Amino acid sequence: MNTVSPALNARVASSASLLISLSYMGACTTADGLVYGCAMGKTTQVAFQIDDDSLTEIDALVTGQYRSRAEVIRVAVHDWLARRHAEQVDVVLARGYGVTPTGPDEDVWAELSVQGLEAGELDW
What we know:
There is one protein chain. The protein is α+β, with helices and mostly antiparallel strands. It has one domain. 52% of the residues lie in helices and 13% in strands. The chain is built from four helices and two strands; from the N terminus they run H-E-E-H-H-H. Helix 2 (52-64) crosses helix 3. The longest helix has 31 residues, at 69-99.
């Protein structure tokens, strides 16, 4: 799966101005995790400043893995939003289990489920 380095995600300063389109519906991805040209729904063009080092790193990705600067940034934003969503789900689950902890019977069934998944040799 193509991902953009966390360092690149974090670096936003000044220098080169870049215009991109961000989708309100999320990036369109395939099973291999790549983003291809597909209908994104309603989009808004966003202008922002980015430092030259980050832009150089983005340009290197464009020549090797992506079709455009905008695609690199869309993938980075999509990855960040997905991680943020997963973290929010984890917080809600932890809060829920804190209010109603599992009992001994549920713990046994959970362990059996894990053992069954491991025995199935699933490739996650």
